[in-house]
Amino acid sequence: xxxxxxxxxxxxxxxxxxxxxxxxxxxxxLLYTNRLINRLEEREERYVQLxxxxxSYLVDPSHNNSGDITFVTNEILAVNxxxxxxxxxxxxxxxxxxxxxxxPGTFEEQQQFLRREIAEMRESHVPxxxxxxxxxxxxVYYTNSSLLRQLKYFPYVLLIxxxxxxxxxxxAFSSSRRAEQNRVWVGLAKExxxxxxxxxxxxxxxxxxMRADPQQYDESITDELEKDVRRLxxxxxxxxxxxxIPTLKEENLSEVVFQFTDYLAKRISTKVNMTVTSxxxxxxxxxxxxxxxxxxxxxxxxxxxxxMGGVGALRINMLALPHQEIGIDITDTxxxxxxxxxxxxxxxxxxxxxxxxxxxxxxxxxIVEEYHNGKLFVKHSEVGKGTTFRIVLKTEQTAKAVQPxxxxxxxx
Length: 412
Hints:
Layout: H1 11-59, H2 61-64, H3 70-76, E1 85-88, E2 94-98, H4 107-124, E3 128-131, E4 137-142, H5 146-211, H6 219-241, E5 249-252, H7 253-265, E6 272-278, E7 285-288, H8 290-307, E8 312-321, E9 325-332, H9 339-342, H10 360-371, E10 375-382, E11 386-394, E12 407-411
Parallel strand pairs: 6-8
Antiparallel strand pairs: 1-2, 1-4, 3-4, 5-7, 6-12, 8-9, 9-11, 10-11
Transmembrane segments: 12-33, 153-173
EC number: 2.7.13.3
Protein name: histidine kinase
């Protein structure tokens, strides 16, 4: 059987193949069109040489004695319909021109215009000498036709087009890959929520059964069991929300963060000193989905605790930012993030832990940026000293007109 082709693991290989193919196409096109341009240039030069010979035939008295010269004017001089050319006689006077349109104006202005054209033609091509007898010589100046100029720039235009197509192909490929990954994550999250539903229902039934017989089952044990079941319900609700448009409500942000971190502080290492402060105006609200936003705080905080090895300081600070925005800084004293990994911390599957799935920060970023129209990024990190993540949320002017106050909750 043929093995399935893993498009994600072969991503870099595919990019290299696409880039090489585009380079080959562009190079082949450039070589071919340059060859075509050279041939056209040679042909146009022959046309001008015919014109020069025709002028020589007309001007040289020895040729005039031959009789009918109508074919010269009809078939040789008139054959040039595209190449701009100007004939200057031996005395330096402009005698004739082909395919050069004169601007309106006086005779002297038109002569000046033709002189400028001759100067430009001299820079692009060596003039062709016209022998008219008795050692006298005229000159035919010419330049490329409009067709030749178009063909000359065609390869560069084509390369630009190929480059744009390449960028679009890359963006389409990346977008398709991300969309496929999103579908996998959403499907996995919803299936997890679905699978948790049945055992949770059973557990709730057991809790009710135990409460019905308080003499046999200690009430404190039942209460703790119920808390764990409620916690599983919260987790299930979070997974169910992935892939769906969440409902956002105006919430007092300080209250939400204080309440959840108070819950979280009791469930992390006792050797971590957690400090939560707020510099937001009293009553400051923001539109959030409380369930999902708590998940963001939890993911970042647990990631920070892991980075500190369960020992250190964890600081959460809420502050007002310009442009009606709120910032939440989460700072740890962990091992920090190297520059090489700075761009990877939010990538799916990236983890420095042996048992890590590398999805926590990825989901947190998605929840903040896609569902809350905010930002999540690494504000600062130094190896061996710690990291600060910043969450930025947009807000309306709903805060009370009071001075910001500092509130603190500590877990020691």
